[in-house]
Fold this sequence. Notes:
This protein has about 240 residues and is an alpha+beta fold. About 30% of the residues lie in helices and about 25% in strands. The protein has a 5-stranded mixed beta barrel with strand order 1-3-4-5-6.
Amino acid sequence: MTERLPLFPLNTVLYPGLVMPLHVFEERYRRLVADLQKLPEEEPRRFGVVAIRDGREVAPVREHEGPAGPLDGLGTVTGDPREALYRVGCVADVTSLRSRADGRYELLVTGTTRFTVESVDASGPYLVAETRPLDEPSGQGSGALGAVVERAFHEYRKRLAGAKEATLAGDIELPLDPQALSYLVAAATVLPAPVKQELLACPDTAQRLTVELELLRRETALLTWLPSLPAADLTRQAFSPN
């Protein structure tokens, strides 16, 4: 079964179970949110978040050309948006929506399920995709891998705190479920967007945990030898998959 979803391309990756705030200011995405608001109350308000492979979130500013089109900002050559977007994305459920007086929106969305992009329609004000839900098996040994990754993540976080000369805000309450753990670690580790996308697209939980273990060990070693490496401030807050 496929599902037709509005698309919100971003320069970051959304994972199932993770929460993401969005500030919606471009006209094309304001139209997307306005269309979601028109849905019947009982229908879920959701769209697809896909990471941008080539291009940027915000369309370049051009004078006297009207609002940005659905492909503006994306690095397409043939006009096919799939060239500029990664194929695996995540469904975003709108959990909080606040309209501002200037027409902008503040959203809080929660990632739910992964999908693959089958085709993209660029005929409207924003992109709409035909998507197929992507199941995720546990894979062999995911439980044991989860325990090892949890220890590696705590060590990574300590090293990161040292590199930032920050104080840990206490132990993170990590989920016991290996799949939820794998997504939380993917979101909370300082990694380039293509690597985060690779983690989202892993075929099963065990493979994601295996890749994360290698990454955590590598990053921890780098932080040990080069404590001045720049990093996002991930040590002053607790992470939650809810």
